[in-house]
Design goal:
Elements (H helix, E strand, L loop, with lengths): L1 H10 L8 H24 L10 H10 L3 H20 L1 H8 L8 H35 L19 H19 L7 H22 L2 H13 L17
Helix pairs in contact: 1-2, 1-5, 2-6, 3-4, 4-8, 5-7, 6-7, 7-8
Length: 237
């Protein structure tokens, strides 16, 4: 995404090189990228390619010998479309000569920062939960089966919500220059995240020792948008 953003700045710019909207959107893109890469490397023990994404491993197991050609469309082609689609707002920003709007562009920047912050906090809480469980198991203690504290108390997938807030807020920069069509990429990304959310929750429910707890968690807790729990609290075990 960062390379695409700089490509647009190099070849599509129709305004002065110090256009605030361009500079701010690129700075935010770099911040998002650094946050995501840090989260990935921390999760993987600071190594590259050590583990395959469990979702792709599950799809291979389900599709068997057909996976080699299905993966081209379901993984590679789709991700290339998503890369181009979700960076369309950056094209709109760099192709516009309109000046920075303090109110609307400021709101878009604030939304981007909030999305990045929520995703970063949620990923950190999840990482601490998983590493604490590893320490518990190494000490012969049973693991905690459900993360329902911090942001995870108010959303079952606060990291996904943060990501979606980031991309839709980035898209608001395009809306501010009259290019609403550039939100198509954010919409496509959100639709893909619906499928990812279902896969993740199905995996949680597949473990018998955690299924009942997670069903109760589903009943009480919002899927993406952080909100207050619906009824009584379930104790963490």
């Amino acid at each position: 995404m960062v390379l695409i953003g700089h490509f647009y700045r190099q070849y599509c710019t129709r305004s002065a090189p110090d256009n605030a909207r361009q500079l701010v959107s690129l700075a935010l893109l770099w911040l998002w990228s650094i946050r995501l890469k840090h989260s990935y490397l921390r999760r993987e023990g600071w190594t590259l390619g050590a583990r395959e994404d469990w979702r792709y491993a599950d799809m291979r197991a389900r599709n068997g010998r057909h996976w080699w050609w299905m993966s081209f469309f379901l993984v590679y082609a789709v991700q290339q479309l998503m890369l181009v689609g979700i960076t369309l707002p950056l094209y709109s920003v760099h192709a516009s000569a309109l000046p920075w709007n303090p109110i609307w562009d400021g709101a878009a920047a604030a939304g981007c920062l909030l999305g990045i912050g929520i995703a970063a906090i949620a990923d950190t809480q999840l990482h601490e939960f998983l590493t604490a469980n590893e320490r518990r198991q190494a000490g012969g203690k049973p693991p905690v089966l459900l993360l329902n504290t911090g942001l995870w108390r108010y959303s079952r997938h606060p990291n996904y919500f943060g990501e979606q807030l980031w991309w839709w807020s980035l898209g608001m920069f395009a809306v501010n220059v009259g290019q609403r069509w550039a939100l198509a990429g954010a919409l496509f990304n959100s639709l893909c995240m619906v499928g990812v959310t279902r896969l993740t929750e199905a995996r949680m429910l597949a473990r018998p020792e955690r299924a009942a707890l997670f069903r109760e968690y589903q009943r009480r807790t919002s899927v993406w948008l952080p909100w207050f729990q619906r009824s009584c609290r379930t104790k963490q075990i």
